[in-house]
Amino acid sequence: EPLTEEVQQAITDDITRIVSYDPRLAVGQVAVHQQDSGFLVEITLSYIPNNQTETLALNFNGANKTLTTN
């Protein structure tokens, strides 16, 4: 499936919804990028209790059906 604007928005909405289940976390930004055989999702998360911010990078590879993190 091509990474259209609608698919990118659906991914962003799902991530935001899932993270909202944990009251200690807040989503700052979600960026979805097309790659050769999949896509990369970069999520900026804030840990509210101590105001710590981290960026999580998730690489989804459609060719071999794997997920890796950076």
Question: Can you describe what's shown?
Answer:
By secondary structure, the protein is an alpha+beta fold. The chain contains 1 helix and 4 strands. A hairpin with a 4-residue loop joins strand 3 and strand 4 (66-69).
* Dominant shape: globular
Give the spatial strand order of the biggest sheet.
1-2-3-4
Strand content: over 45%
Mean pLDDT score, rounded? 94
Could you give the order of the helices and strands? HEEEE
Work out the number of β strands. 4
Distance between the termini: 24 Å
Q: How does the major sheet shape up? A: 4 strands, antiparallel
- Helix fraction, binned, reads 10-25%
Rg from Cα: 13 Å
Instruction: Point out poorly predicted stretches.
Output: none
Structural category is alpha+beta
Outline of the structure:
This protein is an alpha+beta fold and about 70 residues long.
Write the topology of this structure.
Elements: H1 5-19, E1 25-35, E2 38-47, E3 52-61, E4 66-69
Considering the chains and any ligands shown, give keywords for the structure.
70 residues, four-stranded antiparallel β-sheet, alpha+beta, globular, single chain
